[in-house]
């Protein structure tokens, strides 16, 4: 056949960081702090809910359910988000359940972005935004968070990475259809402040731009920080789709249950994509997640709430990893949220052999060298940047700290041994 086999929209998006690095971690790592998933169990109340759903009297939970979300789940999600957003929600039109946040994002781009539309993406970004915009025929327009290291020699915080307001404003024009916001941000762990969100909101309203707000780490914020939902700011509800994930919320990434919350005027179009692609996600998993949310609704804000306990535990894990990395001289950027942490690998250039014939960036070479020689897996930060900007950010790697104490201890042992080898060489 002389015609190309693949559709034109797949051109240039065939590479995927996760396929390569998940394989490397599986082959070489003793400790995997690469891909973002917990290695500790999902909470008992969730797995018990699944067991009850499986073995209980309702055999219909093994059959198809409502396409746009199992009624029990959309109802409780609507109740929960009514509380969070301070507005009435219709479970049937303001909420839709998806196959993870991944499919929620796919629905957003397919439903709202057209040929020739521009979509602003804040860098660094969860890598699937760019190919998803392109597959929808849109043009991604990138705007970076710029690091401003503190002058007092203290460790950097994710809050020190900020948008330049003039640069951000310069990206909005009559072709701009949407901006993707991810707060708390993967990979940096940045939790956008009310002022930063206010600036984005003002520009969205001024230029009549939609906001795809990826909030999958909404409960994972530390040091008393508050996650602010951009949809709650003046003029934003009507133009925002909130994306969420039970995988991140209940430490059960394999379940692939996600959702969107937003105005019907936007969600009606997401429903069209959903009904013509996936139709719905596993009924039984939706039923168990619904029960998880029921529990959290009853315990809202109480110390026994999983949404209170999980960030407490993760903050301690973050602090352990910060300490271990800092000890070795791999300066961590302290994340305000998520379960990721970015660290500066610029002092390690002499450890990694030069590769004069390779155009692979330093962070990729470092990460591969580290997993093969030290047994520790991470992800290069430049994977979270566009082609045009990735060469400016090759001195960092990302670790995931949603791990058992034993895993973090094993990571610390590797880092301590590495430090001893460095000091004795
Ligand atoms: N958005 C962000 C920012 C993520 O980090 C992830 C998962 N790593 C997703 C969306 C996808 O979530 P899910 O597993 O629910 O599809």
From TrEMBL:
An example GO CC term for this entry is: mitochondrion
Membrane-spanning regions, if any? none
The Gene Ontology biological process terms listed for this entry are: kynurenine metabolic process
Q: Which cofactor does it need?
A: pyridoxal 5'-phosphate
- Catalytic activity of the protein: L-kynurenine + 2-oxoglutarate = kynurenate + L-glutamate + H2O; an S-substituted L-cysteine + H2O = a thiol + pyruvate + NH4(+)
Superkingdom classification of source: Eukaryota
Query: Listed GO molecular functions?
Result: cysteine-S-conjugate beta-lyase activity; kynurenine-oxoglutarate transaminase activity; pyridoxal phosphate binding
- Is Lyase included in the keywords of this UniProt record? yes
Output the InterPro entries linked to this UniProt entry.
Aminotransferase_I/II_large, Kynurenine-oxoglutarate_AT, PyrdxlP-dep_Trfase, PyrdxlP-dep_Trfase_major, PyrdxlP-dep_Trfase_small
Q: Pfam families attached here?
A: Aminotran_1_2
Coiled-coil residues: none
Span of domain Aminotransferase class I/classII large = 30-411
Q: Which UniProt keywords apply?
A: Aminotransferase, Lyase, Pyridoxal phosphate, Transferase
- Gene3D superfamilies of this UniProt entry? Aspartate Aminotransferase, domain 1, Type I PLP-dependent aspartate aminotransferase-like (Major domain)
Assembly and interaction partners: Homodimer.
What protein family does this chain belong to? Answer: Belongs to the class-I pyridoxal-phosphate-dependent aminotransferase family.
Name under which the protein is recorded: Aminotransferase class I/classII large domain-containing protein
Q: Which organism is it from?
A: Catharus ustulatus (Russet-backed thrush)
